[in-house]
Prior knowledge:
Blueprint lengths: L1 E4 L5 H6 L4 E4 L6 H11 L5 E6 L2 H8 L3 E9 L13 H4 L4 H10 L3 E4 L5 H12 L7 E5 L4 H9 L7 E4 L7
Parallel strand pairs: 1-2, 3-4, 4-5, 6-7
Amino acid sequence: MHALTTSAASVPALRALGVRDCCVLARGAPAEPLLQAYLAAHDLAQFDAVIDPFMDIYLRKLVRHLRRGGSYLTCGVYQQFGEDVPDAFMEQGLPLDEVFSLIIRKNLSLVGNNLGTTGDLEEALGDYAAGRLHVPLDAVVGTGGLAHFVERTYLARGRNGKVVFAYSGEDA
């Protein structure tokens, strides 16, 4: 498993989770040459699958690097509330009409999944309870820290893990 990140500071945590290696895309540099060099350096032709938390950052950059019949799974949008100032890094990659043309021509599976089904949640909770699933935590926030919870969940840059809201008790 390989990881792609825009934050070099995330690399140690990603490796600790079992990632073989990380491609760091610097926001100030063109993404395509870095992706091509990374694939070549790791003797990879293309990726079999991509699991991407922020499709508006990576989809347009990665779809050409998915093998025929590959899968692209995403569960979120980074700029879900829009931005006043356009971000040139976000605009890098293929135009959306070409993205969808490639999805069709390469017979790619594009899956948008955020919460899953009740069964998915039950299975994940069972895996967690059995020690098969490690969930990195950034913070656990109690009822006295609602503003802190919202800030850490939606605004904190460099957050590496989930922010949990405890419905009873003070900040943990």
